[in-house]
Each structure stands twice: as structure tokens, then as C-alpha cells.
């Protein structure tokens, strides 16, 4: 697996528009997540993949919401919880995967949140900014994959 374990974003440059393997952008304990750096890195990679400026920001915000959710709602002892953010370009889609141990994510049904203070606003924003959201849970690990078609 590529990427650091010290919480700093990696800076690899995949070929724009080509399929590539998952690249780890961040991997560290939940209490050490550099939200702004992750947002900036996703934005940069989305622009490199061909997204216009606003669409790249939207994608970065969707990933930000997923990472905040993982870091905030993970295990009660967040210092033991691992959060991993990965990215790839595959078959015309920009994909980001946010993985967390000890997180019992539940994907709420699509729809508008009733209020800004109710749970589910983050997933509402995520669904607004990406084409597909997939939740995979297995043996104490939750993985949220966000996909958005790359404009041509």
C-alpha cells in the first residue's frame, strides 16, 4: 500500500484520465486528521483529472464530509481508530474511499434533512456532490466509496 502513516497527504501524480490503483492520501488515527489538507489534496487531484473548479470543490467537500463523519463518529476511543482516505481514477470516474475501523456507519435513506441540527446532513451533502455512494461493512471495518463521473 502506498502512503504515509503520519497523517500527511501524499503527492503522487496519476496519469490524468487513465485507470490507476488506489492511492492512499491519508492514513492515521482519527484524532489526527488534517481536514483542510485532505480537502485541498482531493481538490487538486480532481482538477488534474479534468473537473472544473466548482465541481472539484464539490467533490472535495463530499470527501471532507465523509472524513469528518469517520473521525467524529468512530469508536469512543478515537486515538485507536484508523481513518484512511484513498483515491483513484477508474473507467471515467473519480473515486474516493474513506475507511474506518470501529465505525458503525449507517447510510440514511436519500432525501432532504429535516433540519441542520439533525443527523444525516453530511450524507445529504455527500449525495448532492457525487453520483454514487456505496457503503461496505465487514468485520468491524466500514468503507464508504464516493464516485463521480469525470467530465469530458
What would your notes on this structure say?
There is one protein chain. The protein has 3 helices and 5 strands, in the order E-H-H-E-E-H-E-E. It is α+β, with helices and mostly antiparallel strands. It has one domain: Heat Shock Protein 90. It has a 5-stranded antiparallel sheet with strand order 1-2-3-5-4, covered by helices on one side. The longest helix is centred in the middle third of the chain and has 20 residues. The protein is globular and about 40 Å long.
**Secondary-structure element pattern, one letter each:** EHHEEHEE
Structural class: alpha+beta
Order of neighbouring strands in the sheet with most strands:
1-2-3-5-4
Mean pLDDT: 78
How many strands appear in the DSSP assignment? 5
CATH class: Alpha Beta
| Annotated CATH topology | Heat Shock Protein 90
What's the helical proportion of residues? 25-40%
Instruction: Please give the domain count.
Output: 1
| Separation of the first and last Cα atoms | 30 Å
β-strand percent reads 25-35%
Question: Would you identify the CATH H-level superfamily?
Answer: Histidine kinase-like ATPase, C-terminal domain
Helix run count:
3
Rg over CA atoms, rounded to whole Å, is: 15 Å
Sum up the overall morphology in one term: globular
